[in-house]
Write a structure and sequence with these properties.
This protein has 15 helices and no strands. It has a domain at 52-199 and 254-317 and 332-348. Helix 6 runs antiparallel to helix 7, helix 6 (103-115) runs parallel beside helix 13 and helix 9 packs across helix 14. By secondary structure, it is mostly helical. The chain has helices spanning 2-30, 32-67, 69-74, 78-83, 92-100, 103-115, 121-128, 136-148, 151-175, 191-224, 233-243, 258-267, 270-280, 286-310, 329-354.
Length: 355
């Protein structure tokens, strides 16, 4: 009986997917002018924002892992890795690049290490939680300047996400153990490794850009059928940004939205998560990553709120920022503690299940 129900559900789901595909094709033909404009804009974003900020770093990071240089770099940070993050020192390089180079880099490096059998699946899953961040080139140079015409505001958003990742990394080190297969890897610099790194990074970069273009086209189709009717312009852009993060650069300046923007930057958007699914090649679970990434992004949002209130560098924007009663600040710290507890409970439950 259960098999029949499962089979019927599978058939119905298949028909539903067919209907979605038919609708997608029909709307593409009916709204070709809007679609062409949207695809054109997304390609421009890829050429002007994504490729310049990501491709070079993707090649370098891939080359560093492929040649074994990452172990030599990581040893410089041994005290921080060993005593603060409780992380095997060769893996600290992944944390560094994951928070500097841009969204897919950290996951890509972890996938490479799993493929080389340097780390196991659980270690990759845990590290993915805090080795995921937008690069400063995008947040500070693009989001900060495009939205607020301010490098300082971009720095606040980036540092909020980084601090949230550091807190998550410290908690993960306290409640779980990492495995790393230490091996005396010789540094092997060669033209072949460079070519392989360029090829691998080129494939990943192409996939990232194609996902951005496809997501932009889908968003425009949904907009054409008035899915977002009734939303204000800023709310609509925020929804678009949740689906594809580069849309956030079209937002107009609003200091009230800094915590919201920080959450979106910390989360990355649906398009980025789909990219990660393709990059990780089912080497570890992205679903667990998404579930824990939400409270981490919320923590980053709260940190940005505290920055805006207390840091002198942000005082110039306070006249446009909505103040809440200072007595509510205790609630903010309570939320931070709650988020930390969620992460601790999650990993303790996983540890007890594995035992």
């Amino acid at each position: 009986m259960k098999c029949n129900k499962k089979k019927i559900f599978g058939e119905l789901f298949s028909y539903f997917i067919c209907l979605i595909i038919m609708w997608y094709i029909a709307e593409t033909l009916l709204n070709s002018k809007e679609i062409i404009h949207s695809v054109h804009q997304s390609i421009i974003r890829c050429i002007s924002v994504l490729i310049p900020s990501l491709f070079g770093l993707m090649v370098i990071s891939d080359l560093i892992i492929r040649t074994g240089i990452y172990q030599k770099i990581s040893i410089l940070f041994y005290p921080i890795s060993r005593f603060i993050f409780r992380l095997p020192y060769p893996l600290f390089f992944v944390f560094l690049l994951g928070n500097i180079a841009g969204y897919p880099i950290g996951i890509k490096l972890l996938t490479q290490l799993v493929e080389k059998n340097s780390i196991d699946k659980k270690t990759a899953e845990r590290m993915s939680l805090f080795c995921f961040n937008s690069g400063p080139a995008f947040v500070i140079g693009t989001v900060g300047i495009a939205i607020f015409s301010s490098v300082k505001i971009g720095l606040i958003i980036y540092m909020s996400c980084l601090i949230a990742n550091i807190i998550c990394g410290i908690i993960c080190g306290l409640v779980s153990k990492y495995t790393y297969n230490h091996e005396d890897t010789k540094v092997t610099l060669s033209a072949e490794n460079l070519v392989l790194s360029v090829q691998s990074s080129g494939k990943s970069m192409l996939m990232v850009c194609l996902m951005v273009v496809f997501s932009s086209k889908t968003i425009r189709l949904l907009d054409c059928v008035h899915i977002f009717a009734g939303l204000s312009e800023k709310t609509e852009i925020l929804v678009f940004s949740l689906l594809e993060i580069t849309n956030i650069t079209t937002l107009t300046s609003s200091y009230k939205l800094i915590p919201v923007i920080t959450f979106l930057v910390g989360f990355g958007g649906i398009c980025v998560l789909l990219q990660l699914t393709a990059i990780c090649k089912n080497k570890f679970s992205i679903l667990k990553f998404v579930l824990i990434r939400i409270p981490i992004s919320l923590l980053a949002s709260i940190i940005s709120y505290l920055f805006i209130i207390y840091l002198p560098i942000a005082e110039y924007c306070m006249e446009n920022y909505y103040y809440t009663d200072k007595s509510s600040n205790t609630n903010v710290f309570s939320i931070i503690c709650l988020i930390c507890m969620i992460i601790i409970i999650f990993f303790r439950k996983k540890t007890s299940n594995s035992d």
